[in-house]
Inverse folding.
């Protein structure tokens, strides 16, 4: 029986004076991650508030790593010894990590499903010819999400300022997530149009169980006690 991989979301919040160094790390750390023992998948990501999915959302002080690990010792070795982890630790004034277990995943990212098993994360690569309709639909959904009952954390994530973006969200319960997914009018309409109009050239939707969190970002653990 297949076991769920260990997935981590790392957030580093840097002071303004370290933003240029953070940008440089995003460009240079990919090679080091590719040779990290026990790391099955990794993406260094920019973040934002997810309100418009364009450059206006960008939070240049908060950077993310989404990673899939072979086992907990591989993660521990990364935190202890990796030049990537140490480099970001030197830059950051705050560090936060969420440990996740995959519950379900469908779709692909870069041509394959990194989670490999049949909280919530969605990523999409938008077809350029349909981008205007997609972006027009984002603000109503973002407004619904911001006010959704049971939402603990919403984070826009992306590999590029436009075109390849997603949302990572943490919910107080499965019921709260389900209520938003199936009953929020703007969200339901966006899901319908996604398939009817072919908004995405590639998409991935994954659900996770939140195992634990460590550290802080924006002054606190955003999901503690939720």
């Amino acid at each position: 029986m297949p076991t769920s991989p260990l997935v981590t979301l790392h957030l580093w919040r840097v002071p303004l004076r370290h933003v240029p160094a953070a940008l440089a790390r995003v460009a240079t750390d990919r090679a080091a991650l590719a040779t990290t023992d026990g790391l099955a998948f990794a993406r260094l990501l920019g973040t934002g508030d997810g309100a418009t999915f364009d450059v206006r959302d960008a939070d240049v002080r908060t950077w993310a790593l989404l990673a899939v690990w072979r086992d907990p010792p591989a993660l521990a070795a990364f935190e202890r010894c990796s030049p990537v982890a140490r480099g970001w630790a030197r830059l950051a004034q705050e560090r936060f990590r969420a440990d996740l277990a995959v519950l379900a995943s469908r779709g692909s990212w870069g041509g394959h499903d990194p989670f490999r098993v049949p909280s919530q994360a969605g990523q999409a690569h938008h077809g350029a010819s349909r981008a205007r309709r997609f972006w027009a639909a984002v603000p109503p959904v973002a407004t619904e999400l911001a006010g959704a009952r049971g939402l603990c954390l919403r984070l826009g994530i992306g590999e590029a300022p436009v075109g390849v973006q997603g949302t990572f969200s943490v919910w107080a319960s499965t019921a709260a997530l389900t209520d938003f997914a199936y009953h929020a009018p703007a969200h339901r309409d966006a899901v319908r149009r996604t398939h009817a109009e072919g908004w995405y050239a590639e998409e991935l939707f994954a659900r996770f169980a939140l195992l634990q969190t460590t550290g802080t970002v924006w002054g606190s653990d955003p999901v503690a006690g939720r």
